[in-house]
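Quick log. Single chain, no ligands specified.
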Amino acid sequence: MSKFLIQGIVVLALVGSGAQFAGADQGAGNSHHQQLQGVVIEKGGTLAVKVPSGSTYQLNENRSERHGHALPKVGDEVTVVIDENNMVLEVHPKGTEGKHRFVTGEVVSLGVMQREITLKTAKGEQKFPMEKQELSSSIKDGTRVRAELNEAGSIIDVHPEKSGSGH
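-> predicted structure:
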Protein backbone atom coordinates (compact mmCIF):
# COMPACT_ATOMS: atom_id res chain seq x y z
CA MET A 1 0.00 0.00 0.00
CA SER A 2 2.76 2.48 0.82
CA LYS A 3 4.37 1.61 -2.54
CA PHE A 4 1.27 2.94 -4.35
CA LEU A 5 1.21 6.03 -2.15
CA ILE A 6 4.83 6.82 -2.95
CA GLN A 7 4.24 6.28 -6.68
CA GLY A 8 1.21 8.58 -6.52
CA ILE A 9 3.21 11.30 -4.79
CA VAL A 10 6.01 10.99 -7.38
CA VAL A 11 3.52 11.23 -10.25
CA LEU A 12 1.87 14.31 -8.72
CA ALA A 13 5.25 15.94 -8.15
CA LEU A 14 6.28 15.32 -11.76
CA VAL A 15 2.99 16.63 -13.14
CA GLY A 16 3.25 19.74 -10.95
CA SER A 17 6.83 20.51 -11.95
CA GLY A 18 5.98 19.91 -15.60
CA ALA A 19 3.18 22.47 -15.37
CA GLN A 20 5.59 24.99 -13.80
CA PHE A 21 8.11 24.57 -16.63
CA ALA A 22 5.38 24.84 -19.26
CA GLY A 23 4.09 28.04 -17.68
CA ALA A 24 7.58 29.53 -17.52
CA ASP A 25 8.21 28.69 -21.17
CA GLN A 26 4.97 30.30 -22.32
CA GLY A 27 5.90 33.62 -20.70
CA ALA A 28 9.39 33.68 -22.19
CA GLY A 29 8.16 35.11 -25.50
CA ASN A 30 6.19 37.92 -23.88
CA SER A 31 7.52 41.41 -23.24
CA HIS A 32 9.19 41.79 -19.87
CA HIS A 33 8.79 45.55 -19.75
CA GLN A 34 7.54 47.46 -16.76
CA GLN A 35 5.57 50.68 -16.84
CA LEU A 36 6.29 52.69 -13.72
CA GLN A 37 4.87 55.99 -12.52
CA GLY A 38 7.40 58.49 -11.24
CA VAL A 39 8.53 62.07 -10.86
CA VAL A 40 11.32 63.73 -12.82
CA ILE A 41 14.27 64.80 -10.65
CA GLU A 42 17.74 66.19 -11.28
CA LYS A 43 20.49 63.71 -10.44
CA GLY A 44 24.14 64.39 -11.17
CA GLY A 45 23.33 67.28 -13.49
CA THR A 46 20.97 65.25 -15.69
CA LEU A 47 17.33 64.26 -15.56
CA ALA A 48 16.15 61.03 -13.98
CA VAL A 49 12.83 59.53 -12.91
CA LYS A 50 12.33 58.56 -9.28
CA VAL A 51 9.68 55.87 -8.77
CA PRO A 52 7.78 55.11 -5.53
CA SER A 53 10.16 52.23 -4.64
CA GLY A 54 12.97 54.81 -4.41
CA SER A 55 14.76 53.58 -7.56
CA THR A 56 15.89 56.16 -10.08
CA TYR A 57 16.22 55.73 -13.83
CA GLN A 58 18.43 57.99 -15.94
CA LEU A 59 16.68 59.70 -18.86
CA ASN A 60 17.96 60.20 -22.39
CA GLU A 61 16.85 63.74 -23.17
CA ASN A 62 16.85 63.18 -26.95
CA ARG A 63 14.47 60.23 -26.70
CA SER A 64 11.50 62.38 -25.63
CA GLU A 65 12.01 64.69 -28.57
CA ARG A 66 12.19 61.76 -31.03
CA HIS A 67 8.86 60.52 -29.65
CA GLY A 68 7.25 63.90 -30.12
CA HIS A 69 7.02 64.72 -26.41
CA ALA A 70 8.33 67.90 -24.86
CA LEU A 71 11.40 67.43 -22.67
CA PRO A 72 10.16 66.67 -19.15
CA LYS A 73 10.98 69.16 -16.41
CA VAL A 74 11.94 68.56 -12.80
CA GLY A 75 8.74 67.82 -10.87
CA ASP A 76 6.78 66.47 -13.87
CA GLU A 77 4.86 63.25 -13.29
CA VAL A 78 5.66 60.67 -15.99
CA THR A 79 5.28 57.04 -16.95
CA VAL A 80 8.60 55.37 -17.67
CA VAL A 81 8.92 52.10 -19.63
CA ILE A 82 11.78 49.92 -18.37
CA ASP A 83 13.14 46.89 -20.26
CA GLU A 84 14.31 43.58 -18.80
CA ASN A 85 17.80 45.08 -18.27
CA ASN A 86 16.44 48.04 -16.24
CA MET A 87 17.12 50.44 -19.11
CA VAL A 88 14.68 53.24 -19.94
CA LEU A 89 12.96 52.61 -23.26
CA GLU A 90 10.45 55.45 -23.17
CA VAL A 91 9.12 58.28 -21.06
CA HIS A 92 5.60 59.60 -21.46
CA PRO A 93 4.02 62.59 -19.73
CA LYS A 94 1.39 61.40 -17.26
CA GLY A 95 -1.83 60.53 -19.07
CA THR A 96 -0.24 60.14 -22.52
CA GLU A 97 0.97 56.53 -22.39
CA GLY A 98 1.84 55.20 -25.82
CA LYS A 99 0.30 52.39 -27.81
CA HIS A 100 2.92 49.85 -28.86
CA ARG A 101 2.62 47.20 -31.52
CA PHE A 102 4.61 44.11 -32.34
CA VAL A 103 6.00 42.98 -35.69
CA THR A 104 7.31 39.50 -36.40
CA GLY A 105 9.66 38.78 -39.27
CA GLU A 106 13.02 37.60 -40.50
CA VAL A 107 16.00 39.96 -40.33
CA VAL A 108 17.00 40.89 -43.90
CA SER A 109 19.63 43.43 -42.85
CA LEU A 110 20.77 44.97 -39.63
CA GLY A 111 22.22 48.47 -39.86
CA VAL A 112 23.30 49.20 -36.30
CA MET A 113 25.41 52.17 -37.39
CA GLN A 114 22.50 53.50 -39.47
CA ARG A 115 20.12 52.72 -36.58
CA GLU A 116 17.75 50.76 -38.80
CA ILE A 117 16.64 47.19 -39.38
CA THR A 118 14.93 45.61 -42.38
CA LEU A 119 12.52 42.77 -41.69
CA LYS A 120 10.79 40.39 -44.08
CA THR A 121 7.24 40.31 -42.73
CA ALA A 122 3.88 39.03 -43.93
CA LYS A 123 3.49 42.49 -45.57
CA GLY A 124 6.83 42.19 -47.43
CA GLU A 125 10.14 43.83 -46.60
CA GLN A 126 9.83 46.70 -44.15
CA LYS A 127 12.53 49.05 -42.87
CA PHE A 128 12.25 50.42 -39.33
CA PRO A 129 14.31 52.97 -37.40
CA MET A 130 15.82 51.55 -34.19
CA GLU A 131 15.80 53.34 -30.85
CA LYS A 132 17.79 50.59 -29.17
CA GLN A 133 21.28 49.99 -30.54
CA GLU A 134 22.26 47.26 -28.10
CA LEU A 135 20.99 44.00 -29.56
CA SER A 136 21.56 40.42 -28.54
CA SER A 137 24.42 38.76 -30.41
CA SER A 138 21.92 36.07 -31.46
CA ILE A 139 20.13 38.63 -33.68
CA LYS A 140 21.70 38.64 -37.12
CA ASP A 141 20.64 38.35 -40.76
CA GLY A 142 18.20 35.47 -41.19
CA THR A 143 17.07 35.40 -37.54
CA ARG A 144 13.30 35.33 -36.97
CA VAL A 145 12.47 38.08 -34.46
CA ARG A 146 9.63 39.78 -32.65
CA ALA A 147 10.12 43.55 -32.57
CA GLU A 148 8.29 46.06 -30.40
CA LEU A 149 7.49 49.41 -32.02
CA ASN A 150 6.55 52.57 -30.17
CA GLU A 151 3.85 54.98 -31.27
CA ALA A 152 6.36 56.81 -33.50
CA GLY A 153 7.07 53.58 -35.46
CA SER A 154 10.58 53.07 -34.09
CA ILE A 155 11.75 49.72 -32.77
CA ILE A 156 12.40 49.92 -29.05
CA ASP A 157 13.11 46.24 -28.41
CA VAL A 158 13.94 43.12 -30.45
CA HIS A 159 14.03 39.49 -29.32
CA PRO A 160 14.67 36.28 -31.25
CA GLU A 161 11.39 34.46 -31.70
CA LYS A 162 11.22 30.99 -30.22
CA SER A 163 10.31 28.37 -32.78
CA GLY A 164 6.68 27.37 -32.55
CA SER A 165 5.73 30.31 -30.33
CA GLY A 166 2.92 31.37 -32.65
CA HIS A 167 3.53 35.13 -32.44
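The beta strands are 34-43, 46-50, 56-58, 77-82, 88-93, 101-111, 116-121, 124-129, 144-149, 155-160.
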